[in-house]
Amino acid sequence: MCWLGLGCVLLYAGLRLWAPQVGEPAGTLMAVLGLFAVLRWGHGLRNGGALWLLWAVVVVQLISWVGGYLHHPEWMTDTPQLDRLAKWFLFIGLAWWLGGSTRATLVAWGLALLGLMVVVFLPEGSLEQWRLGLGGARAEFTIRNSQHDAMLFGSGLLGLVCFAGRCWRGSGALAWGRRVLWTLALAVCLVGIGITQTRAVWLAGLLVLPMLAVLAWWGGRRPSRKAGWGLAAVSLVILVGAVAFHEPVVERLANENRIIAQAMENDWKSLPYSSIGNRLLTWRASLDWIAERPLIGWGEEGRSLVIEHTEWLPAKTQELYGHLHNTFLEILVGYGLLGLSVVLALIAWIGLGTWQAWRAGVMPGDMALFAAGFFVFYAIVNQFESYGSFWTGVFVQNLVAGGLVTHIWRWQVTTGSRVFPALRSKAT
């Protein structure tokens, strides 16, 4: 990979967490330049699924805006906000700069993890949050809030587990240095997940880690079996951590049991103001709005409209909340089934492309394993928080997708294949 590409990776992977004021515009510039490079020099790539889906998502947002402007102009912005879903495609630029390199991808992901370590320890007050968290309180770092902290810790944990083999193999001082750093980072992520007390991340972790162990074993090769035992060992460590944080976990889960029971009995009006209570109320309200405009939705402000203009929602919910805590519901409210279909097509394209690149030997097995784990983990946590609508989620999903797509493109270029063969184009 050229030095310019490496510089772009550094800007996106490191500075976005270390110095957001610099990292955000730098990352955007990198993505725009990368997109231009794909369009200018990406022979065989510019007619691929990623670019076509980007154009599709722009068209869907335009259709939704025009439909909303004709139906409810008083609630629409003066111009369409095309970045709402288009920013999910920043991975195109990152994938270009990574140049199909596994090493460059691992460097980018490693820098992002290093950025997380820096931002949860160095800013003023961070050590106090660790102290409070270890004392049983819910820790909240300077990233955004506890839920976003937990999602980042969870993503880091998955990467550390899946790439454990790379960190532990070898001999000498350098190998032992990697092992020490891996152990420290794993401990930070495990404890971070515990003290941020985010139930969706706990649930996702408990489901994904055993799944990864099964997938690693299913690979059928001796290294994969060893990875399976390593994953089982990490699962045991997490179990020990769950026992250590047993009291706050049980307390947070028990507080919401009665509320869930009320919702199951269709007792919506008396649901109390709480974390899960507000989620259930806004989710219920969003279903009415989706049913009214299921195809193209209500436009980019749809999630706010649900909360602000649903009369039966509690005043406190309308005052304090501006989103639905569910990425997929927000897409349906804002852009309807058209918007959701494009997003699902993107997920399918990356997922199938990852599988094909791995089968062809272009993508390493541990990277494909991480991709599977992250896909499931991220899908679960987005059912309970709108990560895709905030910079934290956009950053993580583009960083992961960029690393995967650069390998998919490499597979396409070397084999002349397409992820969806039926859509194969004669154009280059």
Describe, in plain words, how this protein is organized in 3D.
The protein is mainly α. Helix content is 74%, strand content 0%. It is globular, with a radius of gyration of 22 Å. It starts with a helix and ends in a 13-residue tail after the last helix. The model is unreliable at 1-7 (pLDDT under 50).
Briefly, what is this?
Helices cover 74% and strands 0% of the residues. The chain contains 19 helices and no strands.
- Helical content class: over 70%
* Total of helices: 19
Order of helices and strands: HHHHHHHHHHHHHHHHHHH
How much of the residues is beta strand, in percent? under 5%
Number of strands: 0
- What's the pLDDT, averaged over the residues? 82
Shape estimate = globular
Q: What topology does this entry show?
A:
Layout: H1 3-18, H2 20-41, H3 49-71, H4 83-86, H5 91-98, H6 102-119, H7 126-134, H8 146-162, H9 164-168, H10 173-196, H11 199-218, H12 222-244, H13 246-264, H14 275-292, H15 302-309, H16 315-320, H17 327-359, H18 365-381, H19 391-415
Helix pairs in contact: 1-2, 1-5, 1-6, 2-5, 3-17, 5-19, 6-19, 7-10, 8-10, 8-11, 8-18, 11-12, 11-18, 13-14, 14-17, 17-18, 17-19
List keywords for this structure.
single chain, 428 residues, mainly alpha, 74% helix, disordered N terminus
